[in-house]
Amino acid sequence: GAILLAYIFYPLYKKLRSIVRSKNLAALLTTVIVVVILIIPVVFAANALLNESLQFFRTVRTAELGGLDQLASKISSDVEIQTYVKDLVTKMSLSVAKGTSDFIFTLPRKILSLFVMLFTMFYLLKEGAELVVNVGKHIPLKESHQANIAKRINSVLYASIFGIVVISFVQGVLGAIGFWIFDMRSPILWGSVMVVLAMLPLIGTYIVWLPAALYKIYIGDTFNGIGLLLYGTLIVSTIDNIIRPKIVSERGRIHPIFVLLGVLGGLEVFGLLGLILGPIILSVFVVLVEIYVLEKQEAKA
User: Per the confidence metrics, is the pTM higher than 0.85?
Assistant: First the structure.
């Protein structure tokens, strides 16, 4: 994480270095900016999500779910929908409480990990350029091949970051429009929350629109509830799979199938960082194959 952040924000560090003389001050300012850009929006989204989730659970547990009863009666007269729903909400509440408890207990470790990441990034900003030069001297490849690999990594990395930002804003805007169309309160607030959550693929925007759709159905607003459910499933959630491969493949000059395999495989192996590491690893593999073919042709010649 530290290496990726240092690599992404190194141009900003160089810009600050042209303004201030001290490497330490430039690296410190860059680190502070990273904290503001990355952490504050996540805290804002988490706080809004937690408050609304608690209110949602309280409302559902005390609500008379007339809308669902009417819907269930059309399907089968034997279905006691209120019992099922309230039991489900109780289990969800316990799950959220357990998750919150686990998060609080592991908070010191998370804070320590965050400190280590930022501390490492600080020194990589200062000394990373020299480190890359020294490592490059010992890589058993021609300088032209090294430059080719570095160029491809740079293209895929920035394409991945660009893709994440663009997709997050698109999903947030689409989510806000959906909330407005289907009569949910605070569409702009929830659109902003979805922008942040869209950057976290293991979480995603469904954490916002799915409970909202279910809530609409619970209170009897079946049309808007089902409409929001279909809108979130077919539009908000699927736009990621359409846009991401196109952006990364075009800007990173890598085939869309490698982007898809890289993202899915990267998430499976590396977790959240795999969203970026997966496509980079596969793109380096492609470059190495190209180098092998080129060297073989030159050897024959």
Answer: no
